[in-house]
Amino acid sequence: MDEATAVKSALASGGGKIRTLGAILSVIGIVFIVMPEALGLGVSGLLGVLLILLGLFRGAFAWVATSWGSVLLRYAIAVLAVAAGIVVLSDPARGLEVLTMILAIYLFLDGICQLALALPLRPFGGMWIMLSGVVSIVLAIMIWRQWPASGESALGILIGVKLLVDGLAIFGVGGTAKAMAN
Question: Helices marked H in 1-150 — which ranges?
Fold first, then answer.
């Protein structure tokens, strides 16, 4: 098998797998869009549990520090994580407000990174990545303008839209790879 045939085969095979991943992400995005409140409260509850577990583990391993100051600082961080987890579990709506703002920051930075990544990839489906980056930035601005009112349902809807658009972008890149193989 010559090198050109090997590259064509890899592109064709990889393109199909990439398209499958894109389709799966798109379906998950649609589910999140349809059930935004359940997703938002579920994410908030999961975050609370994870913070408590993080705090417990940090506290259990704080003794490994090299000095008493470090041990005390690690215990303080552990207590803070457990307290934050309890607060999030006791008031999931407030936790969602904070998560929504963090999501807005993430989406904005993700969009900028995707735009920067898309420029050199233009011949290989970079326009799909660029579209995804623009959507991320628009979603971030939408959250920012409506925060904190955007809390409960916004988190689910916007994560769903982000996954749907990313899935479509990945699907498009996979299609480009497959087309290049032919």
Answer: 3-34, 36-60, 68-90, 92-118, 126-146
